[in-house]
C-alpha cells in the first residue's frame, strides 16, 4: 500500500516534467497555425514586423523557425504570392466579376443622355411604369429586372446568334461592333398620374433622339431600346421614333404579344372614363389612329388571348392594319418560317419592334397578363435572329414583371435581357459597313 501511494504521487509529477504546460502547448499550437497561415496567405493576414512588435522578438523567432519546418505549407512557401503595394490600385481599373459593380444593361457605360449632347448610336433607357395594367402589376420594376438579367452579357460572340453559319449575326458581337452603346438610366416617371408619366417618357425619348449618332453608317440620330414598363409606354416610344425616323405612312410595327392590343378603348377601359381608355391593351389602337403604324406592313406575333368583342379581328386588320400570326402558326410554319413571313410583311420599310414578355409560355416568366400556349425561348430567339437585315429604328421590351418576391423573377429577368440582346444584334448588324 505504501509503494502504491508513492507511485500515485510520482505519476503526475513525471507527467508534468515530460509534457509542456497548458500555456506552452497553446502557444505552440498558435505558432503552428500562424506559420501555416503565413505560408499560405503571406502578408495578407499579418506582417512579421508587426508580430515582433506586438509579441516580442522571441515569439517572432519561434514563428520563423516553425515556418521553415512546416511540411504542409511547403508548396505555398515555394510559390509565395507577392501582393501589390498597399497604395497600388491599378488592378481596380480592370472589369470586376459579372455579378458585381453598379448594374447597367450588359455592363454598358452609363451616360447623361437627357441634358448632355454627346453622340450616341444606340441608347438603352428604362421606363418604370405600370399604371396602364389591367391585370397584374409589377412592370415598374422591369427596367431594373432586365438589367439584373443582363449581368452575364456584354461581350463575346455567341455560338447561337444567327440561324446559319454564314449569317453576319454569327460573327457579330453587338457590344464591340464599332457602335457606341450606352445605358441612359431611367426616365423619372411619376407613379401617380399616367398622363404626366407618359409625357415625361415622351420628352425623355425626344431628348435622346436629338443626339447625333457616333459611328453609324445608316442613321444620323440615336436609336433607342426601351426597358419597360407596361405596354402603354410603347405609344410614346413609337411616337418619338416616328417623329425622328418615320416615313409617310408610318413605321412597320412588329408586335410580339399574346394579345392584339388594338382593342376598342370604349370597351377596354373607356367605359369607365376617358382617362382609363389609354392602357396596355389599347395603345396600338391610338398609335394606328395617329398614323404611327404602317398599315398592312405591321404584324402581331404569338397571339393567343381571347378577343373581347366580335368586331376585334376586323377592327385590328382593317382599321389598324395588322396581320396576325398566332402562337400555333409557329408549329405550322416553324420559327424560321415565321421570321420569313414577318420580313415579307414589313418589306423594306423602317420598322419598330415591340416585345411583350407574355409571348413566352407561362412556365418561363412572370408578366402582366399571362396566357397558356406561348412560345419557347429557343423559338423566340430563332424568330428574332431570322429578322436579320430588317431596318430597326427602335425597340422595346415590356411587361417585365419583376416586383420583389415574385415567382420566376430570375428567369423573367434573364429572358428579358436575352430578348434585348437579340434586338441589339439586329440593330447593329444592319448598321455594319459592307
From TrEMBL:
GO terms for molecular function: agmatinase activity; metal ion binding. One of its GO terms (biological process) is putrescine biosynthetic process from arginine, via agmatine. It comes from Ogataea haglerorum. This is Agmatinase. It comes from the Eukaryota. Residues 1-16 form the signal peptide. The keyword NADP does not apply. Keywords: Signal. InterPro entries: Ureohydrolase, Ureohydrolase_dom_sf. PROSITE patterns: ARGINASE_2. The keyword Signal applies. Belongs to the arginase family.
Amino acid at each position: 500500500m505504501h509503494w502504491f501511494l508513492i507511485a500515485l504521487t510520482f505519476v503526475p509529477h513525471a507527467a508534468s516534467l515530460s509534457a509542456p504546460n497548458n500555456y506552452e502547448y497553446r502557444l505552440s499550437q498558435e505558432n503552428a497555425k500562424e506559420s501555416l497561415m503565413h505560408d499560405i496567405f503571406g502578408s495578407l493576414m499579418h506582417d512579421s514586423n508587426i508580430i515582433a512588435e506586438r509579441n516580442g522578438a522571441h515569439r517572432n523567432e519561434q514563428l520563423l523557425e516553425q515556418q521553415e519546418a512546416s511540411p504542409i505549407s511547403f508548396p505555398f512557401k515555394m510559390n509565395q504570392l507577392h501582393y501589390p503595394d498597399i497604395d497600388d490600385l491599378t488592378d481596380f481599373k480592370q472589369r470586376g466579376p459579372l455579378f458585381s459593380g453598379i448594374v447597367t444593361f450588359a455592363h454598358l457605360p452609363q451616360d447623361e443622355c437627357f441634358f448632355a449632347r454627346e453622340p450616341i448610336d444606340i441608347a438603352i433607357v428604362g421606363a418604370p411604369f405600370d399604371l396602364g395594367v389591367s391585370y397584374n402589376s409589377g412592370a415598374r420594376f422591369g427596367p431594373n429586372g432586365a438589367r439584373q438579367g443582363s449581368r452575364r452579357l456584354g461581350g463575346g460572340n455567341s455560338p447561337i446568334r444567327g440561324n446559319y453559319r454564314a449569317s453576319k449575326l454569327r460573327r457579330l458581337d453587338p457590344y464591340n461592333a464599332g457602335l457606341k452603346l450606352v445605358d441612359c438610366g431611367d426616365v423619372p416617371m411619376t407613379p401617380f398620374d399616367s398622363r404626366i408619366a407618359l409625357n415625361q417618357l415622351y420628352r425623355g425619348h425626344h431628348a435622346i433622339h436629338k443626339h447625333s449618332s457616333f459611328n453609324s453608317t445608316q442613321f444620323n440620330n440615336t436609336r433607342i431600346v426601351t426597358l419597360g414598363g407596361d405596354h402603354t409606354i410603347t405609344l410614346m416610344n413609337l411616337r418619338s421614333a416616328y417623329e425622328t425616323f418615320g416615313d409617310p405612312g408610318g413605321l412597320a410595327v412588329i408586335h410580339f404579344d399574346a394579345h392584339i392590343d388594338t382593342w376598342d378603348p370604349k370597351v377596354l377601359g373607356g367605359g369607365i372614363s376617358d382617362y382609363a381608355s389609354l392602357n396596355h391593351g389599347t395603345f396600338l389602337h391610338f398609335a394606328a389612329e395617329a398614323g404611327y403604324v404602317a398599315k398592312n406592313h405591321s404584324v402581331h406575333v404569338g397571339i393567343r388571348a381571347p378577343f373581347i368583342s366580335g368586331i376585334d379581328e376586323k377592327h385590328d386588320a382593317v382599321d389598324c392594319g395588322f396581320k396576325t400570326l398566332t402562337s400555333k402558326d409557329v408549329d405550322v410554319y416553324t420559327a424560321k418560317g415565321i421570321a420569313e413571313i414577318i420580313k415579307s410583311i414589313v418589306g423594306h420599310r423602317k420598322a419598330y419592334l415591340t416585345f411583350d414578355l407574355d409571348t413566352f409560355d407561362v412556365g418561363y416568366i412572370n408578366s402582366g397578363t399571362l396566357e397558356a400556349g406561348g412560345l419557347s425561348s429557343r423559338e423566340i430567339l430563332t424568330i428574332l435572329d431570322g429578322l436579320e437585315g430588317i431596318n430597326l429604328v427602335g425597340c422595346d421590351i415590356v411587361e417585365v414583371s419583376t416586383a420583389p418576391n415574385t415567382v420566376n423573377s430570375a428567369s423573367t429577368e434573364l429572358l428579358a435581357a436575352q430578348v434585348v440582346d437579340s434586338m441589339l444584334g439586329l440593330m447593329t448588324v444592319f448598321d455594319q459597313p459592307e
